[in-house]
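My main concern about presentation is that the manuscript never shows what a single data entry looks like. The format is easy to grasp once an entry is in front of the reader. For illustration, here is how one protein appears when written out as sequence plus structure tokens:
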Amino acid sequence: MTGAAASAAAASAAAASAQRIWGLVYRHLALYQRSWPRLLEITYFPTLELLIWGFTANFFSHAGGGSNKGMGGLVAGGLVAGVLLWQVMLRGQLGVTFSFLEEIWSRNLGHVFVSPLRPAEMVTTLLVISVMRTVIGVLPAVAIAYFCYAFNLFGLGPVLMLFFVNLLVMGWWVALGIVSLLFRYGAGAEALAWTLAFGITPLACVFYPVTVLPAWLQPFALALPAAHVFEGMRAALLHKSVAWDQLAQAALLNLIWMAVSVAVFGAQFRAARIRGALISIGE
């Protein structure tokens, strides 16, 4: 095969792959177009969390007087910023797992994988839907924080994008781990889609530094990218500086955990296909 022919074949294969991905993405978009409760669910919990912690932040900012008032404002800003950024991780994870569960609930998983769709294309679809759900879910909360609590998340500067990407990627590898458990244990493990990410919140150090944790817990927290992201967030808020070392550690940990999650996902998918679980997983 000549170079031109090989390039044409590769381009054709890439176009076919993109078409399959778009077809599955459109299938999920159609669900949201025809179901306002699904759209409400995306924004409901981020907004509710923001309202609860926003009022708590207002209490802290006004509780102190004199020299303590400025510190109270910083604590309040840290609470609101922590809520908003942690929702990026939660929405990213739920965007993947909920979209996968939609295939299980509709008994569509077997149909998807007897089509030419490859596992990598399925994962790409889930990540695309995750980004859409995260942006739609978090932006209203960001607006409420600005208009109701006078907190501008974008005031963190360009480093905000690095926080966003690291937390989103963390949500992805947590979600792939949950999907792997669904392959292994079936729909009986679907409760993990709601509970697992919330369970690691204490170790993510969203609202407090890692040093607050008991000494034996600190290594577990430092193994999570989120702990480094939120240390960087507090540095940006309190010292107006970018903690590049924390961001570098978060990125490295994300690469390691993502590699582990992809390997586990691949192994569990192959095992599920061999034992026929892709057809019976929702039964």
The chain has a mean pLDDT of 86.
